[in-house]
Write a structure and sequence with these properties.
This protein is about 45% helix and about 15% strand. It has about 450 residues and is α/β, with parallel strands linked by helices. It has a domain of about 300 residues: Trimethylamine methyltransferase-like (TIM Barrel, Alpha-Beta Barrel), CATH 3.20.20.480. The strands form 6 sheets. It has a 5-stranded parallel beta sheet with strand order 9-10-12-13-16, covered by helices on one side. The protein starts with 8 loop residues before the first helix and ends in a 9-residue tail after the last helix.
Length: about 450
C-alpha cells in the first residue's frame, strides 16, 4: 500500500516545451559580464544583459546531470538521488522562539542548532544558515558559520553562498579541515530570481562550485504570483522551471557532469495582502509538481519542508506544517530543506517545534509505509488459539505491539504548558548529552587561519 502523487507526463511536456520557448524568445537577464561571456562562448545568443538559450543547449545540459551523487566529510557520506531522503536542517531563520519567547538569533543559538542537528539521526547534513548569529560581526560571520560547523559536526554541510570570495573560502576551509581534495564536500544552494534574473552573487557562486567541482541546488522559487510571477500556479511553475533550466545550463557549460539538484521552493500567496503564504495548500501542490518535473528530467530534486505562516505553536502551525511535510513525503523528495522547526513564514526557528516536527516526520514516515497484510501478519492461528472469549496477553505479543505500533511524541494529550515544558526538557537533554571529539591541533590551526580566536567558540 503506497501513496504517491504528481503531475502528469502531458503536463510535464507542456511545462518543458513552454520553458524552451521562454528561454529562446524572452531569455534571461544576466548582470555579470563574466557570466555573459560564458553563455556567449557556449553558443547562446547575448544581447546586452539578455541571454537567449536555444533548446539544443538546454537538452544537452540536462543530459549531463547525474541521477545520483555522494557528498563527503572525513567520516561520513551522504548520497543524494538513490531513494533515501536527504534531510536538511532549518535554513534562513533570523529570530528564534523558545517557550513562546522570541528574540533575534545569537551565536549561542547557532551553536545550539548546530549541535542539535549533529545529534539528530533524522538530519542528514549540517547547515551554515540555520539561524543568523547577529552578535558575530558581519565581516566574520560567514567564516564563523562554517568554522563552527566543522568544529561541532562531522556531517557533510551546505556551503556558504554569499558570493565568490565567501564561497571559495568556505570550500577551501572544508577541504583542508577534512583532508579531502578531489571529492564533493559541500552542497551549494543558489536561487535564480523571478521573473527571470541571474544576479551577480548567483553566477559567482555557481562558477566557484563549478571550478571546485562541488554540487549545487539550483532553485527558482522567489516568484510571488501577481507581482513577480503570473497570477496562476501553472504560470508560476512554468517561470520557475525555465529559471532552473537556465541555471543548469550555466553550470553544465562550465563543468559538464556537475551534480545538480533541481530546486522548486514555490509557495502560495495571500491574494489580499500580496504576501507569500508558505502554509497555503498551493505550496504542497508545487512540491508535488516538482516531483513530476524532476522525474521528467531524471535528476534529483529539492522541495517542501515543515512550512507554516503561524507565529506560534497552535492549530494553524500543526495543520500547515503537517500538510506540507506530508506533501514532501508523498513526493519522495530527494532533498528536504527546512525539515524541522520553521515558523512565521520562514522567519523564525522554534526550539519546541523542532522537536514536535521531528515526531511528526517519524509518524508520517510510519503512515506512508502502510501496513503488512499477508498470511503471517493476519495471525489466523493466533485468533483460533485465543478463541471467541480469549485474550492476547503475552510477552511475545507485547513485543509485537511495540514493534507494530511505534510511539511517536508524548502519547496522551498535553496542555500547552506541558507540551512546552516537555519539548524544552528534551532540548536540554539533547544539548547536555552532546559530546564531540575535540579538533586536532592542525584543525584548530586551519580554523585560526580564517577566524580570530575570539570567535572560535
Amino acid at each position: 500500500m503506497k501513496l504517491t502523487l504528481s503531475i502528469s507526463k502531458k503536463e510535464c511536456d507542456l511545462i518543458h516545451e513552454q520553458s524552451l520557448k521562454l528561454l529562446k524568445t524572452m531569455g534571461i537577464t544576466v548582470f555579470s559580464k563574466e557570466a555573459l561571456d560564458v553563455f556567449r562562448k557556449a553558443g547562446a545568443r547575448v544581447q546586452g544583459k539578455q541571454v537567449f538559450i536555444d533548446s539544443h543547449l538546454i537538452e544537452e545540459s540536462i543530459k549531463l546531470v547525474p541521477r545520483a551523487f555522494p557528498i563527503y566529510s572525513s567520516s561520513r557520506r551522504v548520497v543524494v538521488g538513490k531513494g533515501e531522503i536527504c534531510t536538511l536542517p532549518p535554513y534562513g531563520g533570523t529570530t528564534v522562539s523558545r517557550n513562546e519567547q522570541i528574540a533575534l538569533g545569537t551565536r549561542n543559538d547557532y551553536l545550539n542548532f548546530t549541535k542539535l542537528n549533529q545529534l539528530n539521526d533524522n538530519i542528514s547534513m549540517a547547515c551554515p544558515y540555520t539561524v543568523e548569529p547577529f552578535d558575530i560581526p558581519l565581516d566574520q560571520r560567514n567564516s564563523y558559520r562554517i568554522a563552527m560547523i566543522l568544529k561541532y559536526s562531522d556531517k557533510p554541510s551546505l556551503s556558504v553562498v554569499g558570493g565568490k570570495e565567501d564561497s571559495r573560502r568556505c570550500i577551501e576551509m572544508v577541504q583542508k579541515y577534512h583532508g579531502i581534495r578531489n571529492k564533493p564536500v559541500v552542497l551549494g544552494n543558489v536561487n535564480v530570481s523571478s521573473p527571470m534574473i541571474m544576479g551577480h552573487s548567483t553566477t559567482e557562486v555557481i562558477t566557484v562550485h563549478c571550478e571546485e567541482n562541488q554540487p549545487l541546488m539550483i532553485a527558482c522559487g522567489s516568484g510571488l504570483s501577481g507581482l513577480t510571477a503570473p497570477p496562476t500556479p501553472g504560470g508560476n511553475l512554468l517561470l520557475a522551471n525555465a529559471g532552473v533550466l537556465a541555471g543548469i545550463v550555466f553550470a553544465q557549460i562550465q563543468s559538464p557532469g556537475l551534480p545538480i539538484i533541481y530546486g522548486l521552493p514555490l509557495f502560495g500567496v495571500d491574494p489580499f495582502k500580496a504576501e507569500t503564504s508558505v502554509g497555503s495548500s498551493a505550496t504542497g501542490l508545487f512540491t508535488l509538481a516538482a516531483k513530476g518535473m524532476a522525474q521528467y528530467y531524471q535528476i534529483p530534486f529539492r522541495a517542501g519542508g515543515t512550512f507554516t505562516d503561524s507565529k506560534y505553536l497552535d492549530y494553524q502551525s500543526g495543520f500547515e506544517s503537517g500538510m506540507n511535510l506530508l506533501s514532501s513525503l508523498l513526493a519522495e523528495v530527494d532533498c528536504l530543506m527546512h525539515s524541522f522547526g520553521m515558523e512565521d513564514t520562514l522567519r523564525t526557528i522554534n526550539y519546541n517545534k523542532y522537536i514536535l516536527d521531528e515526531y511528526m516526520y517519524l509518524s508520517l514516515k510510519d503512515f506512508l509505509k502502510g501496513m503488512d497484510i499477508n498470511d503471517v501478519t493476519v495471525m489466523t492461528d493466533e485468533i483460533l488459539r485465543a478463541g471467541s472469549t480469549g485474550n492476547y496477553i503475552s510477552s511475545r505479543n507485547l513485543k509485537l505491539i511495540r514493534k507494530q505500533y511505534p510511539k511517536r511524541g508524548f502519547g496522551e494529550g498535553k496542555t500547552r504548558e506541558e507540551m512546552l515544558k516537555e519539548t524544552d526538557e528534551e532540548i536540554k537533554r539533547r544539548l547536555n548529552s552532546f559530546e564531540f571529539s575535540a579538533p586536532t591541533k592542525d584543525q584548530i590551526k586551519i580554523l585560526r587561519g580564517y577566524l580570530p580566536d575570539e570567535y572560535i567558540d
